[in-house]
Amino acid sequence: MSRIELVANAEDHRIARLAAAAIGLACLDAAIPSPLPGVKPGFANIVTLIALDRYGWRTAAWVAGLRVVASSLLFGQLLTPGFFLGAAGALASLLVLAPWSRLPRQWFGPVSASLLAALAHIGAQWLVARYWLVPSPGLIYLLPPLASAALLSGLVNGLIAAAWLARHPCSETAA
After folding, report:
1. What are the transmembrane regions (predicted)?
2. Where along the chain do its domains lie?
């Protein structure tokens, strides 16, 4: 019999540590009661913002993807509507963060990234809910409170990520 051996490098270990932190924060999110369906603080996105700033978009994408899959497995939601809502939101956020990551850091920091990602996240979730889960035109009335919640959580998470990055300078640069 042949055997396949996988060797983890330093980047694999870094991604695993960041994903574990994001999963832990996703557990904290799940413990907080929600005022509206789908409204959560999104604390796990702080780790994605830190990964984006320190290690680049590719690492942030791995962290976000692993968090979505592992959290859904942990909570027993793999391939449920909640999983697809989370995956759509994460994908939309990553698609917005890809061009953002090429902008000059002196003008665009973690707060602007977080605000854009939060709006993309809730927008994608709303589209999935509207056109797949609850195909009702009445869902349009949820957009203002959902967008407001996204802006608030995006601002808070961006400020937390910016404060953490300022307190923990790193000699490594984004890839």
Report:
1. 82-101, 107-128, 140-166
2. 10-167
Report yes or no on whether pTM surpasses 0.85.
yes
**DSSP label at residue 104:** -
DSSP 8-state class, residue 79: T
User: How far is Cα of residue 121 from the mean position of the Cα atoms in its chain?
Assistant: 8
The CATH number that domain 10-167 falls under is: 1.10.1760.20
DSSP E strand stretches across the chain: none
Distances (CA, A) of 104 to 69, 112, 113: 32, 12, 12
Distance CA 26, CA 9 (A): 26
Are 120 and 92 a contacting pair, CB within 8 Å?
yes
CA distance 164 to 65: 22
* pLDDT at 173 > cutoff 50: no
Decide: 63 and 48 in contact? Cβ < 8 Å: yes
